[in-house]
């Protein structure tokens, strides 16, 4: 059975996250329904990451196995013809039958957008966290840098998770100014539930003067979510890219 790899873009505003849930609209369910509509096959797709409710994606990766012997371009065209307007397949490929979108991923890049200005957002309101108070960007950059490395990120893990491995290799956590926006980029081999949003929220507290940059080292050592800061709103977060060997 061929394995189909999809690179998916979506606006997560109207969805209860990636993972299929009863009586809730999800990205996974919408794509599975589209696959059934075009091929009459019932499949279960695997996503590289389970984005939360309201989180967006430019480069989510999904895979599924199918009996249909279609070229990759046919899958992309057929699915885009029936998917909702807020979900699109950007690319498709036929992979080795051992390919697994989640287990084979070697790194993920998330981008968090903060609109830092006095006027409220209009066009971008579903994609940015609006902060109008002064932010110390140098302090935020210093705090972000202190989190880079291979370590226990339990202090930034959300509750209600069955994960037993809190160790992640955070290779990049950068605070970048682009005009009125502050963009925070996080790249790691894996992420815990709510980890990026918790790190962003904590770094923002540093920018607001509620914490010192050096305090994040103690937050990590605590291995307790209560030691960290607020969890940033989901709508500012986007899964930008998933890397494979």
Question: Can you summarize this structure?
Answer:
The chain contains 5 helices and 10 strands; from the N terminus they run βαββαβββαβββααβ. With 245 residues, the chain is of the alpha+beta class. It has 2 domains: 93 residues, Pseudouridine synthase I, catalytic domain, N-terminal subdomain (Alpha-Beta Plaits, 2-Layer Sandwich), CATH 3.30.70; 138 residues, Alpha-Beta Plaits.
Which structural category do the helix and sheet elements fall into? alpha+beta
Q: Helical proportion?
A: 10-25%
CATH topology of the largest domain: Alpha-Beta Plaits
CATH class (first level) name of the largest domain: Alpha Beta
- Judging by the overall fold, what is the CATH architecture of the largest domain? 2-Layer Sandwich
Number of separate structural domains: 2
Which descriptors would you attach to this protein?
2 domains, 5 helices, 31% strand, Alpha-Beta Plaits, 245 residues
How are the elements arranged and paired?
Elements: E1 3-10, H1 27-39, E2 46-47, E3 56-65, H2 72-82, E4 87-95, E5 105-116, E6 129-131, H3 137-145, E7 149-152, E8 167-178, E9 181-188, H4 195-207, H5 215-222, E10 237-244
Helix pairs in contact: 3-4
Q: How would you characterize the overall build of this protein?
A:
This protein folds into 2 domains: 3-95, 2-Layer Sandwich (Alpha-Beta Plaits); 107-244, 2-Layer Sandwich (Alpha-Beta Plaits). Helix content is 22%, strand content 31%. The protein is built from 5 helices and 10 strands. The longest helix has 13 residues, at 27-39. The model has no long low-confidence stretch (mean pLDDT 96).
């Amino acid at each position: 059975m061929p394995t189909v790899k999809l690179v998916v873009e979506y606006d997560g505003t109207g969805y209860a996250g990636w993972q299929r849930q009863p009586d809730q609209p999800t990205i996974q369910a919408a794509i599975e329904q589209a696959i059934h509509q075009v091929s009459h096959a019932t499949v279960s797709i695997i996503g590289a990451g389970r984005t939360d409710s309201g989180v967006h994606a430019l480069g989510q990766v999904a895979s599924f196995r199918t009996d249909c012997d279609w070229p990759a371009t046919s899958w992309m065209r057929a699915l885009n013809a029936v998917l909702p307007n807020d979900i699109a397949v950007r690319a498709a490929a036929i992979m080795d039958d051992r390919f697994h979108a989640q287990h084979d991923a070697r790194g993920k890049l998330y981008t968090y957008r903060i609109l830092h200005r006095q006027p409220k957002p209009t066009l971008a309101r579903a994609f940015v966290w609006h902060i109008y108070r002064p932010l110390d960007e140098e302090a935020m950059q210093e705090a972000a840098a202190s989190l880079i490395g291979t370590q226990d990120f339990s202090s930034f893990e959300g509750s209600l998770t069955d994960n037993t491995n809190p160790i992640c290799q955070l290779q990049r956590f950068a605070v970048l100014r682009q005009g009125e926006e502050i963009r925070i980029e996080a790249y790691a081999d894996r992420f815990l539930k709510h980890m990026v949003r918790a790190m962003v929220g904590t770094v923002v507290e540093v920018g607001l003067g509620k914490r010192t940059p050096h305090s994040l080292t103690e937050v990590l050592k605590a291995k307790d979510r209560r030691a960290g800061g607020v969890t940033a709103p989901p709508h500012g977060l986007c899964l930008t890219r998933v890397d494979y060997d």
